[in-house]
Write a structure and sequence with these properties.
By secondary structure, the protein is an alpha+beta fold. It is 31% helix and 30% strand. It is built from six helices and 13 strands. A seven-stranded antiparallel sheet has the order 1-2-5-6-9-12-13, with helices on one face. A two-stranded antiparallel sheet has the order 3-4. A hairpin with a 5-residue loop joins strand 3 and strand 4. The termini are far apart.
């Protein structure tokens, strides 16, 4: 009598975790870290791309810093130069700020209070996200690599265009959203292969967000987190939704369809 052959499940080796490496520099008055995961994160191409990304971030700081007397922004505010004599990025910042003001129904502005109590051109609310988006360009060209740029808690996650967005070969990142009422607690967790996450609120820096409608800084507790394709617009909308009215929320629902918001 022949016994039936017994079969057992075929065990496959778990997919090895991708190699990873991180770099951090102090730019724009905050730690900005770059994280790579995937193939050859220590190779010369990766090193060159990371150096290029940090170079872009330092360039943006040299143009728009409100703490450097020699920045294009501060020279413009002192009327030592006009817009045409500044980096072309200054004119682009003016254009983005005007577009953001219209789209957010006036909740976002690049005219912010100075230490003297008056208002002056200050695109701080858009420069960080914009700088990170620009810095991601050299990283996006690294084959087989996924990356994350963390600028003071706002993040951009991306990858080479050939990297899958799902399945076993996809590289995912888990992003924790802080509870603004208890900063030791993670209120929610996002899992992303690509996309930006920006949070605006008062938990970390107190009342620092300006409401153009009232002319005052907003001090109420809470936060707004926005996710979407770019950190520039995620950050703009997070700020606008935190300080804005119901009109801003309606504008977000109709004109920012690629973005999602969560208020805490």
């Amino acid at each position: 009598m022949t016994r039936p052959r017994q079969t057992s499940p075929i065990e496959t080796a778990p997919t090895p975790a991708p190699a990873r490496r991180a770099w951090v520099e102090q730019i724009m008055g905050m730690p900005i870290s770059l994280h790579l995961r995937g193939a050859d994160v220590d190779g010369p191409a990766a090193q060159e791309a990371v150096a290029g990304a940090f170079r872009i971030l330092r360039e943006m700081d040299s143009i728009f810093s409100t703490y450097r007397e020699d920045s294009d922004l501060m020279r413009l505010r002192r009327e030592e130069v006009d817009v045409a004599q500044c980096s072309p990025l200054v004119e682009e910042a003016l254009r983005i700020g005007q577009e953001a003001e219209v789209l957010t129904r006036g909740a976002f502005t690049t005219l912010l209070p100075t230490g003297d109590g008056d208002l002056a051109f200050d695109p701080t609310g858009l420069v960080k996200g914009w700088a990170v988006d620009r810095a991601s360009v050299p990283l996006s060209g690294l084959e087989g690599i996924s990356f994350c740029i963390n600028a003071g808690g706002d993040l951009l996650i991306g990858a080479h265009p050939d990297m899958p967005t799902d399945g076993p070969r996809a590289i995912t990142w888990r992003v924790g959203v802080e509870d603004p009422l208890d900063r030791q607690r993670i209120a929610s967790t996002l899992t992303l292969t690509r996309g930006a996450v920006a949070t605006s609120g008062t938990a970390a820096r107190g009342a620092h967000l300006y409401d153009p409608a009232t002319g005052k800084l907003v001090g109420r507790p809470g936060s707004v987190t926005v996710t979407g394709p770019t950190l520039l617009w995620a950050d703009i909308w997070a700020t606008a939704l935190f300080v804005g009215s119901e009109l801003t929320g309606e504008a977000f629902a109709t004109s920012a369809t690629d973005y999602l918001s969560t208020a805490l």
